[in-house]
TrEMBL record:
InterPro entries: Peptidase_M14. It comes from the Bacteria. SUPFAM superfamilies: Zn-dependent exopeptidases. This is Peptidase M14 domain-containing protein. PANTHER family: INACTIVE METALLOCARBOXYPEPTIDASE ECM14, PROTEASE FAMILY M14 CARBOXYPEPTIDASE A,B. It comes from Agromyces salentinus. It is found in: Secreted. Keywords: Glycoprotein, Hydrolase, Protease, Secreted, Signal, Virulence. Its cofactor is Zn(2+). Belongs to the peptidase M14 family.
């Protein structure tokens, strides 16, 4: 598997920053960008109106519309049509995937694995629209370089219930966090089995996962954080340097350095590194993108040990704790779309692979004291 690009695709982008901002035509923006992160991004009012949040029915309708109207072949399918052994959610909803592009390498984009983190769905639908309709050189390059497998709503049951998890339908009513359900003794939920099998069919070159987090302020400044940049197996930590000879340890940091530099040009986006517990790096192996990097083999479906690097984005605010903030909706979706656009184009042009991975340390973060693992905290020293 190669993560670079063929020489014919190693060409620089020509679009300006203004053009990058203008492409998000479907995303409502507030007039004027402040010099610093907008204090209403996210809102701290403690109330969230979820009436405008995309439902499962909205998702299906928008996917069908994109399939009908796309110029460049957006193909919408269910896992039942794909033929996975398990193909629906715990409550029996179809699990949807949209594909677009003709490139030789597959890219996996997923959102809303946690049902109370809604903007992954809307961000990925916006990206799908551009991939399906935008004929500019940038979007053409992406379609020529990659085939995109887009999962806008990984957890439809939790999304409908406005909860983080899915709920088992075996009589236990147990809530399962789908982002802790790939690994030894796991795959309890139907969604996990279904999407894992699909992943083994796709064998992506890399993956990006879109999340939300709680309200957060930047270490040392107290400024509101609007987007955190995350890698689920900590760079330089106990796990990632030993995978693929350290290749993913380097590439995932390069991806986020590139995103940080490009999005720092937008005045109302304030980024830091994703940490938990104030000063802990996450090193959890049971998450979906962690298992991808580890090349997990479940039921013999991945005998060749395919693995791929993966990163995630965390937009501040979620629905169930009342911190999403409707005023921040357009900006929250927009920053996800811009982050996706920048990292995808950076990978396609080879710009990401030229970044200095050591600059990961320059992205704002609290001094690291240890690692949050599946079994507890491992101190740094």
């Amino acid at each position: 598997m190669t993560h670079g690009l063929k020489p014919s695709n190693r060409r620089r982008r020509t679009r300006a920053i203004a053009a990058a901002a203008a492409f998000a035509v479907a995303i409502p923006l507030t007039a004027g960008s402040p010099a610093l992160a907008d204090p209403n991004f996210p809102s701290t009012e403690g109330s969230t109106n979820i009436s405008s949040i995309a439902t499962y029915a909205d998702l299906v309708a928008q996917l069908e519309r994109l399939e009908r109207t796309s110029r460049f072949g957006v193909d919408v399918t269910t896992l039942a049509e794909v033929g996975t052994e398990v193909s629906t959610s715990e409550q029996g909803r179809d699990l949807y995937v949209a594909t677009v592009g003709d490139g030789p390498e597959a890219v996996w984009l997923q959102g809303r694995i946690h049902g109370n983190e809604p903007y992954g769905t809307e961000s990925l639908l916006s990206v799908l629209k551009e991939l399906g309709t935008n004929g500019s050189p940038d979007w053409s390059l992406l379609r020529e370089t990659y085939t995109f497998h887009v999962i806008p709503m990984y957890n439809p049951d939790g999304s409908e219930l406005n909860i983080r998890q899915t709920v088992l339908q075996d009589g236990s009513n147990q809530r399962i966090d789908l982002n802790r359900d790939w690994g030894d003794g796991k795959f309890v939920a139907d969604e996990s089995e279904a999407f894992y099998e699909y992943w083994t069919m796709v064998d992506p070159a890399f993956a990006i996962d879109i999340h939300h987090q709680g309200l957060k302020t930047e270490y040392g400044t107290g400024d509101d954080v609007t987007l955190s940049l995350g890698i689920s197996l900590a760079p330089g930590g106990p796990t990632l340097p030993g995978i693929e000879g350290g290749a993913y340890d380097v590439l995932t940091r390069q991806m986020h350095v590139h995103v940080y530099d490009e999005l720092a040009k937008y005045g109302n986006i304030n980024m830091d590194r994703y940490q938990v517990g104030g000063s802990l790096e996450i090193d959890i192996k049971g998450g979906v993108v962690s298992a991808m990097m580890l090349g997990y083999d479940y039921k013999g479906l991945n005998p060749e040990g395919h693995s791929n690097p993966a990163i995630f984005f965390e937009t501040s605010g979620n629905t169930s704790d009342g911190s999403l903030g409707q005023k921040a909706r357009g900006k929250s979706i927009r920053q996800n779309v811009l982050a996706l656009q920048e990292v995808l184009l950076g990978m396609a042009t080879g710009e990401v692979q030229q970044e200095d991975p050591a600059r990961w340390e320059e992205i704002p973060h609290a001094p690291v004291t240890g690692y949050q693992t599946d079994t507890g905290v491992t101190p740094l020293f």
